[in-house]
Predict the 3D structure of the following.
Amino acid sequence: MQTQSNQSRLRDDYTGPFDPDVTLEDFSRDFLSRLAHEFNLIGHLYDRVGQPLVAMKYGPEGFTRSGIEEWQGASPIYSLRMQKTLGFEGDTVETVFKNLQLEVGSPQQFMDFQFRLDEPDYGEFWLTHCGALLDLERNGNDTNLIKLMCHDIEDPTFDATAAATHPRIVMRPFHRPPRIDAENGNGAGRFPHCRWKVYKEDEDVSFEHHPIMYELQKSLLASVPLVEPGVLKEAGGLEDYSGPFDPHLQFEDFSQRALQLIIQENAVQALLLAHSYTRSQTINYGDEVGRRFSERSWVGHARVAVERFQRFLGLDGDDIDTMAKVFQLHPHFYPRTYTDLRVEITGPRSLRISMGDCPALEEGVKHNWFSQLSSEPHPALESIAAHVNPRARCHRASDPGDARLAWDVIIDENNEPLEEPMEMQIARSSAGITFELERRRLPGVIARG
């Protein structure tokens, strides 16, 4: 494949006017590596919105069940997708470790996994920074809640992720929180926060995945193709992960083309988690609860993405151009093979967002986010717009044109500023909202190869 000679055409950021035709392909490897980190961490932070809603209503038992079912339903599917996308399909612990380095369940740096692979079917990992644990310690250090997360939820969900690669691969702790000097504790201030061994058991066993996983396997999202990058526009970096395991891998190590695929797969992962979460609430509490929790989690998590984009991607304005860029890059609307989102600026204070016929609007997962869309604006769309400018409002488009659905967003200085929704206030209890990612590669030498 030929490399485009004029690399200067690639964007290192998204300054300047909004471009309705811009795609991931138009950005440099440097920017795409930062965007990949954001999609990766934002996907992880879905639980900082969704699971507190369950805990407040249904207590520790509901929280635990929801966490288990959400991750058991989604992670086996997206693990195999990422393996196929980056060419490292296999049945070894090495394969599992590569998955962990790339998925939203273990976002790079915020959940700072360190690895040691001793042989293809035995290795260990430990966390030098566990953002999820530190959130709980900072917000009351409830050892019972920590045990629910680090024991009751972690055990079955880790094994489900490993079993996607091979049914005999298991993850077992050497030590794990709560970090207290008492029974069931691993010692006050213990570092690293936890340590695990991952290996293939000798006995021939099978792993029974959760029924939600089998449901989601039939979803349109589970098998949706990605937008394939076109001509190679920038040289350097790993085109896939078929080579040896690198315990220090960062997104910066991948090529411009590979990063486009990784970003899209991380978007699929987050949407699968949202689908799985919604199925869990609907199965356990009925249609009304399932739909309400789905809607409220979308309102909150949509806003989490905007907050991080404005803090760390330079999209910190409150004008209509900034708002259009935020909608255009928002992870909830990738891959475009699934959502077909379109963004158009229609005036100095107005834009139109629309969706054409696409798999997202035909998805069979009951009460999923996109099944809630109609000609009337969804609260999640207004949540995105209002985080950019609190005087923005979303309206039904009188004529959607050739789109299936369309909505107009207008900034009106006469509007009272919208208050931040409760779901975003809940999410702020996590340091992940403001967590600043490091650049662990030298500037200008952002990767191997």
Q: What stands out?
A: The chain is about 40% helix and 15% strand. The two ends are 17 Å apart (CA to CA). Strands lie at 111-119, 122-130, 169-175, 194-200, 341-347, 350-355, 392-396, 405-411. The first helix runs from residue 29 to 44.
